[in-house]
Amino acid sequence: MMCLFYRKNLDASSMNKGEIIMRWRVTFLTLNLLAMQSALLAQHNCPEGFRYVGKMTGTGSYGIPFNERRELILPDGATPDMSYQQKQVRARAGNELAHSDLLAKDIPKGILIITYGSTTYDQGWAVSAPQLRVVGSSDNSQSPRYAFGMQLYCATSKQTSYQHYGGCDVNVEVCYKLKK
To answer: How remote is the C-alpha of 159 from its chain's centroid?
Structure first.
């Protein structure tokens, strides 16, 4: 696309100021559109029939594990299909410091979670204690407004030889099943 903007005479001195400004604007716009395209295509991992709520994240560093509860508010008017129950979940991975007793049946009905985190250099992550709660009513109706939260944990290795390889992270993408 950039070839459209080049002339046979590459000497910019023959162009007026308006042409130069227009060339820079078009080039800048083209670069922005290309950058936005990749960001829009890689937003979430929710399967068809589910809506993306958001991502809960946490980051720890060497000697300072991350151990906090995170929560997301479902969109206004979102009503999860309570007949859906997640069948499998990965509740932990990595080192022995990361432990969880979370089972798929513990995830509230209508919610799908996709979990992942860092495990290289003996890092570990875990998620637990999922909860779906009502936080009020929707603006446009009397239907309830929901919030979903979980406990997130990650830790780096206790080995001092790994202390220079960065921290740890834990991520949970949250989706809800659309009510039919």
So the answer is: 29
Q: Is the model more confident about 6 or about 158? A: 158
pLDDT tens track for 101-135: 999 999 999 999 999 999 988 899 999 999 999 99
- Strand partners of residue 59: 169
Q: Which of 151, 79, 143 is nearest to 109 (CA)?
A: 79
pTM of model > 0.70: yes
Q: Domain limits at 17?
A: 2-41
Separation between Cα atoms, residue 111 and residue 109, nearest integer Å: 6
Contact between 17 and 42 (Cβ < 8 Å)? no
Same domain, 118 and 158: yes
- Supply 3's token pair: 């070839």
- Examine the domain organization and report whether 34 and 87 are in the same domain: no
